[in-house]
Amino acid sequence: MQAVKVLPKGQITLPKKIRDHLGINIGDALVIEEEKDSIVIKKGKTIHDIIGVLPSPGIPIAELIEKATEEAMKERAKSGY
């Protein structure tokens, strides 16, 4: 167990030994959970962690976003908003 100090803006520094052991790097997402009188910090997952896991949509992502936006606008027009 290692002690860390909370800085004025609520920041803490994770000790290097722990970051290295858990593979926490600059820019990684962390999840903080409250458990009774404790907090638990876990390495989070982001979209970048699952790239390559999901099948390719077969079209460029920009085109996929454009089509999804067009569909959303059509649905919005139908609903009268």
Task: Give a brief description.
The longest helix has 19 residues, at about 60-80. This protein has helices at about 15-20, 45-50, 60-80, and strands spanning about 30-35, 40-45. With about 80 residues, the chain is α+β, with helices and mostly antiparallel strands.
Keywords, please?
alpha+beta, elongated
Verbal overview:
The protein is an alpha+beta fold and 81 residues long. The protein has a domain at 50-79. Helices cover 37% and strands 15% of the residues. It contains 3 helices and 2 strands. The protein has helices at 16-22, 47-50, 61-79, and strands at residues 30-35, 38-43. Strands 1-2 form a two-stranded antiparallel ribbon. A hairpin with a 2-residue loop joins strand 1 and strand 2. The protein is elongated, with a radius of gyration of 21 Å. The mean pLDDT is 85.
